């Protein structure tokens, strides 16, 4: 996949999450239907938190020389940040705005920019291209759960993913 295609796939994630989380009543946001134990509110908060961490990593790789990229424990963040009770609409809007902002930054990058790397505390060397690919895949992974949860709540919508 070209870097241009990768950036557009990443950028498409904002509107897709807005779509996937649209039309939810508060009781739908808080319910915990399978798969997994997370509510839609928790899942969306996780997506926002992770996207913001990855945006920071991308900026560091672009602007700094071989920066450290620190891992985080998603479960501790979910519990410690009370993700279950975060407002879904605000979270989705933040996610979409962050993706739009980062797409502007990424579109300015060259082939050399996408080859730049940082050193992740758990997995080692990661290039900008790998980081963008990972976070684009992360959204699609969790959208599958979100659409399944909607289906179990009786409010299914046609699934859409960035990989389509």
Tally of strands: 3
Q: For the record, what CATH class applies?
A: Mainly Alpha
CATH architecture field: Up-down Bundle
| Structure annotation, total helices | 7
CATH superfamily descriptor: dinb family like domain
The largest pleated sheet is described as: 3 strands, mixed
Short synopsis of the structure:
The chain contains seven helices and three strands. By secondary structure, it is mainly α.
Description of the molecule:
This protein has 164 residues and is mainly α. It has one domain (3-152): Four Helix Bundle (Hemerythrin (Met), subunit A) (Up-down Bundle), CATH 1.20.120. Helices cover 63% and strands 6% of the residues. It has a 3-stranded mixed sheet. α1 (3-20) runs antiparallel to α5 and α3 runs antiparallel to α7 (128-152). It is globular, with a radius of gyration of 16 Å. 30% of the residues are buried.
């Amino acid at each position: 996949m070209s870097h241009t295609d990768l950036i557009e796939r990443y950028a498409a994630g904002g509107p897709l999450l807005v779509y996937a989380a649209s039309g939810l009543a508060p009781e739908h946001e808080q319910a915990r239907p399978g798969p997994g134990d997370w509510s839609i509110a928790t899942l969306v908060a996780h997506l926002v938190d992770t996207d913001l961490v990855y945006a920071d990593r991308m900026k560091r790789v672009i602007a700094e020389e071989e920066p450290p990229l620190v891992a985080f424990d998603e479960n501790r963040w979910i519990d410690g940040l009370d993700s279950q009770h975060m407002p879904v609409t605000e979270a989705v809007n933040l996610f979409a705005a962050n993706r739009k902002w980062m797409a502007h930054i990424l579109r300015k990058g060259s082939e050399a920019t996408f080859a730049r790397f940082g050193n992740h505390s758990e997995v080692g060397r990661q290039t900008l291209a790998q980081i963008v690919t990972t976070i684009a895949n992360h959204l699609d992974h969790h959208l599958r759960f979100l659409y399944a949860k909607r289906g179990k709540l009786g409010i299914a919508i046609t699934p859409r993913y960035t990989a389509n």
